Amino acid sequence: MVAWLLWPFLGRAQADVDSLDVWVRRMHPAPFMRCMPSDWESKLDALKVGWEDMTHMEHVREVNALLQNLQDSHAAVSAWDWMWGVEREHGSVPIRWAVEGHGLWVTESAIDGLPAGTRVLSLNGMEASECAAVVRDLGNVEGVSPVGQVRTGVHSLTPWIMGQTQSDTLHVQWLDRTSGAVKLVAIPGVPLRRAGRAWRPISQKGPAVQWTFPEEENPLGLDGASLLAVSSFSQGRFGKYQRRLWKGFQRAKELGLPVVIDLRGNAGGQSARMEMLWRHVANGRRKLPFGLVAKQSPETRRDIHRHYKRLRKRWVDKHKDTSQDARYIYDLAHLPMGELDTLEFGVQPLVDWRFQGPVCLLMDGESASATVSFAGAFKQGRRGPVFGEPCLGPQQGTMGNPMLKMLPESGIVISMSTAVYMAEASGDWGSTCPVQPDVFIPQMWRNKDALRANLQVWIDSHTPAE
Q: What is the pLDDT of residues 174-183, one digit of tens each?
């Protein structure tokens, strides 16, 4: 009798976990490049145990933690899908967090009386150490990337807490640095229709490419340098992205001053945009990316055939021997099911109009995907010093070309990689570690003075004497 009562729950767990296993093996080009199949299978079996006793938020957490074993930042629960659902029901709270060790801090806040730098002891009754554990389970990993794991995971903390506790209010217990007293504040969730206004004081909107020149107020407080902040390699129109890069570097060349490239928080995007930025600062010829390994599955075949038809098909067939992009589309469209195909890219040209002055790079744990490829090339090519934190991936490159799938019973949406972007040739992807900065700024979110001081020393050493 008990077995029959448990069967619907066990069946739901079986359907979700089995579907996840099938998609990993069918879609991912190299699922066990960084983990053993036996480890993956044992964790799959462990997830089924206790599934029926979990809440939906716990399902989200456990599925993401399971996918972390692949050490692929694109193989994860799609955070935006479940976060929007929680915020529609319970509202949004305009606070950003940081996790260091087992501690939780406020990094940015639009809530009066709860300033940045505040140490938090609990959220809705959940102690800071458990909040830190939740953050790690909800984060993204690429290789062994503990910094990137917590930097990405903190964005999911507030909606996860409110969804788990089914509360429209976030109760924050925090430590007053002045008096040493423990205080409690109740913050109601802001309805989504008003969330944009609530987040405005701590939001940074603008184009993906933003230049700041010496005569303007520098957001980092730097003197004597041009600052280029690229927040994304996917947002906005390609033509506008191209023009802003071109005009900015032309101005930088006229000024003859160092350039600081800020890729903090840049989660990647289109490889073509990353390659364009590289051509502006390259100091040598190289393949970037080196190559791409793609796998054919029913999902990728359906996707490629949405594009490989009619006039585009005629163009691809005509130019497949002269165009790298056309060859890629043609080869993938004709790739047998379950097969892998490797496309090796051409050498990036060393253009005459590139910026040849001093350049440094700023990155953090959220610098991911195509940004990792850029950071790896920048460091390997010794183009300039790298400041900040380890980024989310190794110098050899990352996975990519993700597609979304929905687990049949729980409705959890997951992202699954279908390709490997090789930034450089490597025979040992399993033992990779994230690109490391030359100048490490620990806890960069609150050590802004240390970041500014280190950058200014470098700028001053490359500023022409008057």
A: 999 889 999 9
Question: Encoding tokens for residue 90?
Answer: 């319970």
Q: Domain containing 324: what range?
A: 209-461
Instruction: List the CATH number of the domain containing 149.
Output: 2.30.42.10
Same domain, 172 and 309: no
pTM, two decimal places: 0.92
As a whole number, the mean pLDDT across the chain is 91
Tell me, yes or no, whether 414 and 278 share the same domain: yes
Same-domain pairing of 318 and 446: yes
Strand order in the sheet with 340-344: 340-344, 291-295, 419-422, 397-400
Q: What is the total count of domains within the chain?
A: 3
In a domain, 201, yes or no: no
Cα 92 off chain centre by: 21
Tokens matching residue 360: 């440094």
